[in-house]
């Protein structure tokens, strides 16, 4: 069996929730081909979502990016990991790099910037990011989603007036 077939089998195992079988197949691939970006990406996903091992997940996402800088999937997963870990400075650096990768949809990058700003209670900045995402998107469904993001931030801005002290304390801790 070749690497591609084994990789597809492992991906099918994930869909069947046979995560241990997938893990073993991915490890076999990495043993034979240590720089196989799709496998590192999938291992990162497994470690993050199934084993809650963020350190190993990060290692695999970064290795996938290093192994094939044009392979877009680990950029997405790594951005989500950084967001969940509230590592917003690292996220911003990562997103800056994403803007230079030709295979990454740029509206997605601005959307992720927007989420980071929103999570940090910077609703005006978040809205600006979501608007940029709309401006460069060619996908009508995504544009609708980005408009919903703007609407959500607008509602949060209205609520923020009632919770100024709490928001200021949150901003100081971030």
Enter the CATH topology name of the largest domain: Serine Threonine Protein Phosphatase 5, Tetratricopeptide repeat
Low-confidence stretches: none
CATH-wise, what's the superfamily of the largest domain?
Tetratricopeptide repeat domain
Q: Note the gap between the termini.
A: 49 Å
Largest sheet descriptor = none
Structural overview:
The protein is mostly helical. The protein folds into two domains: 1-88, Tetratricopeptide repeat domain (Serine Threonine Protein Phosphatase 5, Tetratricopeptide repeat), CATH 1.25.40.10; 105-174. The chain is built from ten helices and no strands. The chain has helices spanning 3-15, 19-32, 37-49, 54-67, 73-84, 88-98, 106-119, 123-136, 140-160, 164-173. α2 (19-32) packs antiparallel against α3 (37-49) and α5 (73-84) packs antiparallel against α6. The longest helix is centred in the last third of the chain and has 21 residues, at 140-160. The chain is elongated. The model has no long low-confidence stretch (mean pLDDT 95).
Q: Which properties best describe this structure?
A:
single chain; mainly alpha; Serine Threonine Protein Phosphatase 5, Tetratricopeptide repeat; 2 domains
Summarize this entry quickly:
The chain has 174 residues and is mostly helical.
Chart the SSEs and their pairings:
Blueprint: H1 3-15, H2 19-32, H3 37-49, H4 54-67, H5 73-84, H6 88-98, H7 106-119, H8 123-136, H9 140-160, H10 164-173
């Amino acid at each position: 069996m070749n690497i591609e077939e084994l990789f597809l089998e492992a991906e099918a195992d994930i869909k069947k929730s046979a995560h241990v079988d997938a893990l073993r197949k991915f490890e076999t691939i990495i043993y034979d081909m240590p720089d196989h970006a799709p496998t590192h990406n999938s291992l990162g996903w497994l470690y993050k979502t199934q084993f809650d091992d963020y350190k190993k997940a990060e290692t695999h996402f970064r290795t996938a990016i290093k192994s094939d800088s044009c392979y877009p999937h680990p950029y997405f997963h790594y951005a989500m990991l950084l967001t969940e870990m509230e590592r917003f400075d690292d996220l911003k650096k990562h997103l800056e790099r994403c803007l230079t990768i030709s295979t990454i949809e740029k509206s997605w990058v601005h959307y992720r910037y927007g989420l980071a700003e929103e999570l940090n209670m910077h609703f005006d900045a978040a809205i600006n990011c979501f608007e940029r995402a709309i401006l460069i998107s060619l996908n009508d469904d995504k544009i609708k989603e980005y408009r919903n993001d703007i609407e959500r931030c607008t509602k949060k801005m209205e609520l923020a007036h009632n919770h100024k002290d709490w928001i200021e304390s949150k901003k100081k801790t971030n």
